[in-house]
Every structure is written in C-alpha cells, then in structure tokens.
Write a structure and sequence with these properties.
about 160 residues
C-alpha cells in the first residue's frame, strides 16, 4: 500500500481500497486468482510465482507499468561482533550462488545474485520498472497512517 500511496497519494489509495475486495489472508488472493474466483490480485512476486513455476497456465505475473515496489531482504555482519570472521563466512555462504539458487528453487525468493539460475519467465530486475522512491524508513513511519486510513475506508463501506 505504501507504493500505491507514493505513486497516487491518499486519493489513489482511497480509490483502490474502495474498489477492492478485502480478503482475510494474502494467500486467498493468489489461490482465488488461480482458481478463477478473481480476475486479478495484488500480491507479492514470490507468492504468485509459485503458481507460474508450478505450471499453472491460467496465472501470470504482471508488473505495474507505473513502477513495482522492490523491498529488499537482507543479511549483515554487525560491526564489532564477537566473531567477525565466522559472521563473514556465514554471510558469504548465504550469498553464494548455490544457496541463492536453492532459496529461489524452494521459496521463490528473487536471488540477490544476477548470475543465480532462476526459472524461465522471471524477468531480470533490470527489465522491471522499479519505484525508485521506496524508502523503508519512510514506509515504517507511514505504516500507522496508512493502516489507519485503510481501516477508515474499509469500515465506511
């Protein structure tokens, strides 16, 4: 919702929520689309990609032309940690090509490495228009306001 807010402001967010079917669980989105109950759903890439990778011919992934949110997941070595060499080895292991490929194969999470093998149909990140204004700190600050607005709109229907 942060991305919708950044692109279209409160008015756009209000219109989207006002026209959306609100479900109790995010898994109902991709299950409902795959089952033909809904023509379209807004969800996370990895969740939808399970159906694409699983061979579903009726489900595809469309990236918003106005920009897609890329929210990085990460690992880091903490400065002055008690075992910095072991931490670095573990970090290197996590970002190794075999581990990145296994994480994609098992969990459909986009690899951090561009040389890691993925399944056909997943476009490289450079081919997706990415919303460059994504700021995780701002998203965190705005979370309460966005959720409050969400609740107001949903309850007023």
């Amino acid at each position: 919702m942060y991305g919708i807010y950044k692109l279209y402001g409160w008015d756009g967010l209000t219109k989207l929520i006002g026209n959306a079917k609100i479900l109790d669980s995010s898994s109902l989105i991709y299950k409902g689309v795959a089952g033909g109950e809904y023509p379209i759903g807004v969800t996370m890439e990895y969740a939808a990609y399970r159906y694409v990778a699983g061979g579903s011919k009726d489900v595809g992934i469309v990236y918003a032309a106005d920009g897609a949110i890329v929210a990085p997941e990460g690992a880091a070595v903490i400065l002055n940690s008690p075992h910095p060499q072991e931490a670095k080895k573990f970090f290197d292991y996590l970002i190794s090509k075999p581990v990145q490929e296994e994480v994609f194969e098992k969990f459909y999470r986009r690899p951090a490495r561009t040389d890691a093998k993925t399944i056909a149909g997943l476009p490289p990140l450079k081919k997706i228009r990415v919303l460059k204004k994504f700021d995780p700190l701002e998203a965190n600050v705005l979370e309460k306001d966005i959720l409050k607005k969400w609740k107001e709109i949903v309850l007023s229907r």
